[in-house]
């Protein structure tokens, strides 16, 4: 154990002393802080503006022109009132209207022929412009009000009958997948990123030690088990620390600025502690599971340049796991997600998604957790054996299959 | 202490590379492990260090199974390697701690050896910034860090200039005088002759010669003489001996300045002298042949 802690400390400090560890972390934290402070700063600036000059807030109003060519529209005021895009102003002739629209004095123009017919005059027809649909809505409403009045009925009453206001409330017995979706996705993505990034770091560290031939001295100084466990757990701790610092920064600075955000991001930051706990346990174990594999892969190559090719199958597998899990977020009862939530290489993500967004019994969680713990320990010891074996082999990268065969031969 | 290597076999991917290696070393006597490139020296050392296991055979220390981790061992691997991007002191302390020293001992010992090897000034420098010779000395510092009882050096002199080689020689002699157990693998026969009382010569995975070096030399010199003549060239002398004295002389080998002759069994150097006088050979040089380790080495592993 003593040696394990020595290796662990050495490896962890290796990360903590590196600029490459701190600078990205500081940049990410700084970005989070800046983003979270934006509403507070904007409130401050606009509050300041209000005090200084009042009244001149008319700039934003968009002007639209219209002509009622046949004088058909009786209730023009209601038309204007229901046109939400801007202000409608009447012009005297179609020519003037076209001219003014062309000179961009008006956003667009409407030549009204009747309640059910009009021409839309615009300079450039844009894909996403919906001025005319807004106008159409206003025209339809004016038409309805006018017609109902003609029939001696109050439009408001009719509207109340056709579109009665219905009050409803959703009572969720299980999990509200919709509101959990975003933080579940972000946490899963964070874990994905952490595993891929630090997995590569671990593999590189091992391969580098092999490349510069430090391995022989290390292996004759202490048990290979201490080395691989210390190394993997050391990088793991560095990764978790980085992740935790970023999450904590986000949480703390959201709390500070929550009011300015109008508590709109509560769904993102108020993650239930039970979910966080499960994420930590499954996430860390899954992370270790993959780290051991990456560590062993690092031992199978002689130079750090070979790591990419040798780790590709594992990386691909992990990407598949991530995509399946992401798809499973649409439906936590999906059978493949359920299967994945028991397999050790995918349970860290799949089970977490099921816990966070679906309904899982404690027994299921415990079974999946036990499988993951046992597999992680096994992979750890297996990694130590591969590490020892791989440390002796130089030259071409050894395939995992060959390494297992060699382990059997020994 | 007595370390015994008993009948070690080792195969890699089905190919046997060690076919029953046996030798022993005692404290205070250095053993020279010799052999050509690829003979199996490093593999043998790595088995002693438990870097990998033998397929058959065992290592014993004072009659008990040898577990390297239970002893303070100074090991200088053939493949030199430390962390190039780490500071010298930092990595020495780390290695010292891994080998059971406390932080304080680690630091003190590291400083002592850096001083002793005359590289103290580099203690806070990254290893990769040091010259090759100085990096080699850091390797030596890591080897001696724990003041080991058992020292295994694989080609320790490679890369050292004569001054540094002298520093290392002094250190090795000191360890021998302190009754430490030392195994020394090298191609450089002069160093082996200088330190080692015993040798084990490996050829193609088999021990072809082992034992006390002086005894081996005597054995090799036994019945052998060196001779040259003032009046005859070495070639003429060789022909004369081969043609006319073959009842006394078994074999003649020509060197640059003299001939080495091996006498037939039951004949002595006096018999040869008498015959030489009879043949009227004007003798310039006549002595007992004392072979160098290099000659023995070449003769033993070069002739096949």
Determine the N-to-C terminus distance of chain B: 36 Å
Which shape of chain B, going by the Cα principal axes? elongated
**Total of helices of chain A:** 16
Count of discrete structural domains of chain B: 2
What percent strand of chain A?
5-15%
One letter per element, helices H and strands E, the order of chain A comes to HHEHEHEEHHHHHHHHHHHH
Global Rg of chain A? 32 Å
Q: Could you name the ranges of chain A where pLDDT drops below 50 across 5 or more consecutive residues?
A: 51-58
Overall pLDDT level of chain A: 83
Spatial strand sequence of the major β-sheet of chain B: 6-7-8-3-9-10
What is the domain total for the residues of chain A? Answer: 2
**Cα end-to-end separation of chain A:** 26 Å
Which architecture of the largest domain in chain B does the CATH hierarchy give at level 2? Answer: 3-Layer(aba) Sandwich
User: Which pair of chains forms the biggest interface, and how many residues does each contribute?
Assistant: A-B, 21 and 24 residues
Number of DSSP strands of chain A? 4
- Level of helix content of chain B? 25-40%
Q: Structural class, judged by helices and strands of chain A?
A: mainly alpha
Determine the strand fraction of chain B and express it as a percent band: 25-35%
Multimerization state: heterodimer
Main beta-sheet annotation of chain B: 6 strands, mixed
Structural features:
heterodimer; A: 410 residues; mainly alpha; D-Maltodextrin-Binding Protein, domain 2; four-stranded mixed beta sheet; elongated; B: Alpha-Beta Plaits; four-stranded antiparallel beta sheet; 29% strand
